[in-house]
Each structure stands twice: as C-alpha cells, then as structure tokens.
Write a structure and sequence with these properties.
globular, six-stranded mixed beta barrel, 28% helix, seven-stranded mixed sheet, 25 helices
C-alpha cells in the first residue's frame, strides 16, 4: 500500500487505500503531537451520507423558484449534471436580470478544505465576482466581535490575533499566567489551512515543567490541561468583565498600577478610573461588588490582583469570552487591566487573545505567504456581518447599526453556499430554518447531506480533499504540503472548480473564470508564480515537479521569539498605534461618539440576558456552555470514528455536575431533554465534578436532526439566541445560553441524520 501526502485543518498526514479499499492514515513524521482528529478521516470516503449525484428539491423542480416553507421538509430528485447546471445557470441569469447582483448572497463561510486552490469560498467568490458580484459577509463567528473592537483599542486586530507573543517567550519569562477561559488544549490541534507540526502541546508541557503559576478563570476545569497545576477560579459564566474590573479597582485603590505606563502609552485612564470608583454611576467596582456577580470570594480577587502586580504576568483571553452578549467588554477590560500592570511589550508580560482558541496563536512557525487563488474584486459593495444572515433574510430593507455606520439589509433572492454549514455555526436554528424559507433559491455544494444541504433547492455533490489534487499550508505552518489524490471521486462528485467552470461556460464567462487552465495547470501556475516572486527576494524553492514528488517543502523561518507591542513600548512615537491617539485607548472617543448603549466608550459591566443572575434564570436555571468539541472540527466528519465514540446513547454528550443531576433524577448515560423557549434537544448525560454547579456543557457540531422544534441529536444551537454581541460588532453570541434539563421519559426518537434524505431517481415517484 502506497501512502501519499496530504493535509487538513487538524494536521498533515499520509494516506492510502489498503487491499480492501479501506483508508489508512499516518500522521506527518515531523509532527510532535498529532491530532486525534485524524481518526475521523477513514470514514470520509464511505460515509453513507455522501451525496451521490446532483439533486433538486422536488418542490423547486416542479413549482419553480420562490419562497417556500417546505424547504428542508421535501424529498429530492436526482438529475444529470447537465440538467442541474442548466437550471442553475438560468436561475442565476433570472435573479441578476430581475433583482441585480446584490440579490445574490455568496455565503460560503466555512472550513471545507485545507487546500489553497480548492478552497471552496475562494472558488465561489471568484466565480460570483466574474458574474458581476454578490452580497458578501465580513468577520467570523469565532472572533467577529474582537475583530471590530480591537482596532478602536489598539489600532488593529491582526497584531493581536495573528502576531501575539510567542510561546517560547511566554514559557521563558512569564511568572503568572492569568487565563480567562483557560488554554483549552483540544482547540490547539486546529489551524485554518493546515498544520504540520503541532507545537503548542509541547509548550504547555514546558509551562508545567517550569511550575509557572497559572490562574484558571473558567467554569470548566477542562479548559486547561490537567498537568498544569493551576489555581482554579470556577467563575460564573459571562461575568469575566466584572472580575477584570474588580482586579483593576484593587490595583488602583492600593496604588499598584503603573502610572508612568498609563500616562505615556495609553489614553483615557483617568475617566476609566472614575468608572471603577463609581464617580458617575454610584457603583464602586470593587472586589465585594464583583464577588456577588462572579461567585469568587472578595479575598481571592484582592489576592489575585496583588499577585499579578508582584509578578511578570501574562493575561490571556480566549475567543469564547467575546462570543457572548457584550463580548467587546472582556477583551477591552483585559487590555485595560494589562495596561494598569504596565507590562505590555515586556517579554512574558502583557496581553494575549486566542491562546487555546486556535493552533497558530503564539505559534513559532513562519509568517509566510504561500500560493493561493485570487478571488478577484467584487463589484458589489453590499455586505453583512457574518452572524446576521437570518436577520438579513427575514428583514430585507431593515436598517441596523454596525461599527458606527447605519446599514440596510439587502433583499436576497438567491443564496449560494459552497464549503460551509450555517446550520452548524448559526444560533437559534429554528429561526434559521424560517429564514432559509425566504429566498427564491438556495444552492449548496457539499460532499455530505448536511443540514444545509437538506435545506437547499439545488444540491451539487463535491469531492473531498482526499479525492483531488491541491497544496495546503496553514497560518504559521512550517510546511507547504503537496495534497495528492488518495482516492477516486465518490459517485458523480466533482470539485468546485469543475462545477463552476461548467456554470461559467453556460453563462459566457468561462475564459474570465478559468483563464484557460485545468485544475492541475492552476496548481502549477500558482506555484510557479510564487516561486518566481520568492526568487526575486533571494529565496529559492524547488520546481513544482520536485515539490510534488517530494510531497512538500519546509518554509523558511527566522522568527521564534516574539513579544506583542515590543516596538511600541520601545518608542511609542516612532511606532505609534493606528488609533486616533496613537496609543492604547482605554477610553475610545470614537466608540463613545456612536452612542451605543450596549457598547460604551470604555470597558464596562453590562448585564447580559443569558446569565445566571438575570430574570430568565428563574425559568431556565442552568447555564449551558456551547463550546468547541474535542472530537471533530466544528461539525466536520461527525460520522467519523473519533466523533462517534464520544456519543452517549447515539447522541452528543452533555456534561452535568452531580449536584444538578441528582435533584433532576438524572444518571450517567440517561437521555435528557435540554430546553428553553426557543427549542429543545436530546443528549446523553455524563456526570462529572470538573465544572461549576449550575453549569452544563454541550459542544457544538452534532449534525442538526430536527423533529419539529426538537433536535434529537444534541445540537445546542436550537437553544442559543440569535442576537448580536452589540450594535458595534454585530458579532456571534452562541457561547452561553440559559436552559433547563430533564430526564427524557419513554423511548426517545431515533437519530436519522446519519442517513440521506428521501431521494428519487428521476422526476417520477
């Protein structure tokens, strides 16, 4: 059996088919900590949910395009590729002629492939740009709130999210790591575009070996590896900002803050201090005040503040903290707290964001541009914040605020999705189902019958990364990996490029889209152009033929130690930040001028709706944390062996504290019903003591399997609220939700999402 190279978002590997046609997978030999998610790959080729042929929803095929509440409820009819592409090209022409290109929404937010050419989003956006443009989206569900607020505080989001202090710097210099949201090791195995060497687990082990003091601030002990002997502060969810404000108050009240740093490198501190001492609102944000909100004793808060001031302290905030209502506030408050300590720009001190949220945060791989396919220029300037898709579809013409501007939702008639699954990412899935009924036509490219494919009108089967040629490399990846074809395409599957080229030919734009190249010729062209550009800089890489034969190449790297804002600290005048003041804006006059009551011009405690101290908690007393799974990437390959092994009673596992399970009569392994006034889902109960009482944890990614308003498989997004973080960012708030949980009585309905929907061969039943 010959093993050939490839890569994925969770790691580089080699694979081949054995004598029985089964996929065998081996991690890259240079990977010191291969991801367990590689174990999901073998089933990808044979999953029963693979889409075998182009399929059209029966109602759309027989009644034509138009809003339809039956979308997601009807059977599908298999058709030939020619018929499918003819129908789709005609519909694209109709929508453009009748409503304009703005009426086409090119979603494609997702993680379809680590390949840089067969990147589904790039392929679709390139095609739609050539076709005349489309309404697009901005930001991400993962860190969309931070992406908007960080430029107002420190001038750019990119430095914080992509170029933060490196792990070697932290390991060597940090004395106290204060981890808001922890450093969840399960997430560091994933990086967009791929990862060849997983460095972070090794650096976490080095922290443990050095006995670096760690303060874990999270309701979940699993948010930090057990080998790190941390002091655990099991905070009440959604109250991290209150804790940060109280720590800041203690520093100010005891004179432990660095006035020199605040005066030279920051602006607005005096107004922030007035807020801490309640000068305007009458509420002093001291430790006693925060203790009542957070569930952490006032003595512990004061002690932690003093220890932070006495040590080289690195404050890290996971992305999870900004995926809530008012998610701007913990990010802003953490930066203000770090500024008060005066250690920003010092090795091992200051602030970081996303450590444990993604594999490249703090990584030492090269920041090196690899070959990629250009999407071109979109002639349509209309866009929405990515998490507002349901609002857009349900409320065309409605005005809304975004980052200081007033915008209007467009009237979308055609949704075109390739390589993503909004029925995984989005909140309040029953509302999203209603929204998906509104367009005239929904088109989906997919290898599998995901919930998004099942809610489409035209479903076009695509290859997986194992069934085509490409090259891949992630952010700060150490290698560019040649992705060889491991297996032949399943059924009638085609790659996105071939599908879109066929559409382009029917629409008279084939030459603009393909530039006369096959997929393999594109790989050679992109690599060759990149190689020539590097040669002009004195960097020499092998020919494409040599690269392909070798299976990859190591990328040059000269950077290992990195401290965020070190240059700014060394000379804040020559290296001013891209804020109006050129400094860290603890108070932003720009944000204040927007007049948003849900995001003032400085860090503040704003009470959320979905928290244990609010009115809704009287009806729904448990806080459910809907975090990322440890058994798959989002919802990808949920049918894989690793993901399936973690199911309980065939459903996603929900973790409960025995103190919460006991009064509800719930035992280990029981099927439970998790519910609120938005919907309900079934899950399998797992009882454990490593989470705060009053908190339950159900990861995202179980494939949505609706039976009415109930998901029988355990997708928490039937419960989460589809509301924005604030008017500033319009970000996702899917991390926390209030629920009640009860033992399911009787025989639970079966999971059916693990097999395809009803499909007819031809137009007749």
């Amino acid at each position: 059996m010959r093993l050939r190279p490839s890569t994925s978002h969770w790691g580089a590997f080699s694979a081949g088919l054995d004598e029985n046609g089964r996929l065998q997978v081996a991690a890259h030999p240079e990977d010191p900590a291969p991801s367990p998610l590689l174990g999901n790959l073998p089933s990808a080729l044979t999953d029963p949910n693979r889409i075998a042929a182009p399929a059209i929803r029966r109602g759309w095929l027989e009644r034509g395009p138009g809003p339809d509440p039956k979308r997601g409820h009807e059977d599908f009819v298999e058709v030939s590729w020619d018929e499918a592409l003819d129908l789709l090209s005609a519909e694209l022409r109709r929508v453009r002629a009748d409503h304009g290109n703005e009426a086409i929404y090119g979603g494609s937010y997702g993680w379809a492939s680590a390949g840089r050419f067969h990147h589904a989003q790039s392929q679709l956006h390139r095609f739609l740009n050539v076709f005349g443009g489309f309404t697009s989206s901005r930001n991400t569900y993962s860190n969309g709130t931070s992406s908007v607020v960080l430029p107002h505080i420190v001038g750019t989001a990119n430095d914080v999210l992509r170029n933060g202090s490196s792990w070697p710097t932290i390991v060597a210099n940090t004395e106290l790591l204060v981890a808001f949201g922890g450093v969840p090791e399960k997430n560091v195995f994933v990086t967009p575009g791929g990862v060849t060497r997983h460095h972070t687990p090794g650096f976490l082990a080095q922290l443990a070996d050095r006995d670096v003091e760690v303060a874990l601030i999270s309701p979940l002990r699993a948010d930090l590896p057990q080998r790190l002997a941390a002091r655990w502060y099991p905070i009440r969810p959604a109250t991290d900002t209150a804790l940060m404000l109280a720590l800041s108050h203690t520093l100010a009240a005891e004179g432990l803050h660095d006035r020199h740093f605040l005066d030279r490198y920051c602006t607005g501190y005096d107004a922030f201090e007035r807020y801490l001492f309640g000068a305007d609102d009458g509420t002093v944000k001291d430790a006693a005040w925060a203790s009542a909100l957070t569930g952490i004793s006032a003595a512990d808060i004061v002690d932690l503040a003093r220890r932070m001031a006495a040590h080289r302290t690195f404050i890290t905030v996971t992305w999870s903290l900004q995926r809530i209502e008012h998610g701007e506030q913990p990010v802003w408050a953490a930066i203000a707290l770090a500024a008060m300590l005066g250690q920003i720009g010092l090795p091992g001190g200051g602030f970081g964001h996303g450590y444990g949220s993604m594999g490249d945060s703090g990584d030492i791989g090269p920041n090196f541009q690899v070959p990629y396919l250009s999407q071109g220029i979109n002639p349509v300037k209309q866009f929405i914040p990515v998490a507002r898709i349901a609002d857009m579809l349900l409320n065309p013409g409605t005005r809304y605020q975004y980052d200081g501007t007033e915008r209007t939702y467009p009237d979308i008639h055609l949704v075109y999705w390739a390589g993503g699954n909004p029925f995984h990412h989005h909140q309040d899935l029953n509302r999203l189902r209603e929204a998906f009924a509104r367009p005239d036509t929904v088109v989906v490219h997919e290898p599998f019958w995901t919930a998004t494919a099942r809610h489409a009108d035209i479903v076009l089967p695509t290859t997986t990364a194992l069934e085509r040629e490409d090259f891949g490399s992630g952010r700060r990846d150490t290698h560019l990996v040649a992705m060889h074809r491991i297996a032949e395409p399943r059924g009638q599957a085609r790659d996105d490029y071939a599908i879109l080229a066929g559409l382009a030919a029917r629409l008279g734009i084939e030459e603009q889209f393909t530039e006369g190249r096959t997929a393999r010729e594109w790989l050679e062209h992109l690599y060759g152009t990149w190689r020539e550009r590097l040669a002009g800089k004195g960097i020499f890489v092998p020919s494409f033929e040599e690269f392909w034969e070798e299976g990859g190449l190591r990328l040059p790297n000269t950077e290992t130690d990195r401290t965020l804002w070190a240059e700014f600290r060394a000379d804040p005048v020559a290296n001013r930040l891209a804020t109006p003041s050129g400094r860290i804006e603890i108070v932003s006059e720009t944000v204040a001028s927007f007049g948003y009551d849900d995001c003032p011009g400085h860090p503040a405690w704003l009470e959320p709706m979905e928290w244990a101290g609010g009115e809704r908690a009287a009806r729904f007393p448990l806080v459910l944390i809907a975090n990322q799974p440890h058994t798959r990437l989002h919802g990808q390959l949920d049918g894989g062996a690793v993901s399936q092994a973690a199911k309980v009673a065939g459903r996603e596992a929900v973790r409960l504290h025995p103190d919460d399970a006991g009064p509800r009569g719930i035992n280990d392994g029981d099927v439970v019903r998790i519910f609120n006034d938005r919907g309900a889902c079934l899950a399998g109960a797992v009882l454990c003591t490593d989470l705060r009482p009053g908190v339950a944890q159900l990861p995202t990614g179980a494939w949505f399997d609706p039976a009415g308003s109930l998901c029988v498989h355990g997708n928490p997004n039937v419960l989460t609220a589809d509301v924005p973080s604030s008017q500033l960012s319009q970000g996702c708030t899917g991390q926390h939700v209030l629920v009640e949980i009860e033992r399911f009585a009787g025989e639970p309905p079966g999971v059916v999402v693990n097999r395809p929907p009803v499909i007819s061969r031809g137009r007749e039943m």
